[in-house]
Amino acid sequence: MYRFYYENNINLNELVLLNKEESYHAIKVLRLKIGDTVEVLDGSNIYSCKIKNITNGLLELLVLEKLEPTEPQTKITLFQGIPKGDKLSTIVQKCTEIGVSSFEPIFMSRCDVKPSNIDKKNAKLNKVAIEAAKQSGRSQIPKVKDFKQLNDIADLKEYDLILVPWEEERNISIYDLMRTISPPPKNIAIFIGPEGGIDKTEIDFLTSLGAKTVSLGKRILRTENAGLCAAFGVLTLLNDL
Length: 241
Fold this sequence. Notes:
With 241 residues, the chain is α/β, with parallel strands linked by helices. It folds into two domains: 3-66, CATH 2.40.240.20; 75-237, Alpha/beta knot (3-Layer(aba) Sandwich), CATH 3.40.1280.10. Helix content is 29%, strand content 25%. The chain has six helices and twelve strands. It has helices at 20-29, 87-98, 118-136, 174-178, 200-208, 223-237, and strands spanning 3-5, 15-17, 37-41, 46-55, 58-66, 75-81, 102-107, 143-144, 148-149, 161-165, 187-192, 212-214. The strands form two sheets. Strands 6, 7, 8, 9, 10, 11 and 12 form a seven-stranded parallel sheet that branches. A five-stranded mixed sheet has the order 1-3-4-5-2, sandwiched between helices. A hairpin with a 4-residue loop joins strand 3 (37-41) and strand 4 (46-55). Helix 2 (87-98) runs parallel beside helix 3 and helix 2 runs parallel beside helix 6 (223-237). The two termini are 21 Å apart.
């Protein structure tokens, strides 16, 4: 089933008009026609819709029904140390596909990236999240929040559990920790360092805010893989994938 994004809230039995970009893809690329059924997400839910009309190159849809949500019960926020190049786009894409709820890009001491063109980068990442949500059938679209410095984080009290995968943690694996927690946490923060990892001062800062360091295994993962593996592991262990 083809999926599209609509920028505003959707109500049952109303007519919605897709934007120019989404309409072009539907008409010119996918060759959809009046009467075809598609799915549309509005950032909070996903709906079954029928194409009613094509006017001035824009697709008009009738909203038929709200579909069963596909979201995990567990909300995961990935605090990602900003990596070089376009790795952050890959991280947002892949972690959106498995069910991460939101992203907080953070500058850390080992980040080799200058804080320039932040608004442009943020807009691009949110577009990546939209496309990944459409592709994976998510009913909600993760939000990529504004870039910030690690030391700008005042507290993390909104989270039931704060995890910091760290290559120097030898005693507690993510599996060991998750199986001892009861009741299961519903709102989890995961901190991942950039290339080079998280330094000890930052570990001390995060543990002072209630974070727990864990191991992801015997091998050291690249920054673009660590968050994905940690989030996948958490959702799997909670039977919430």
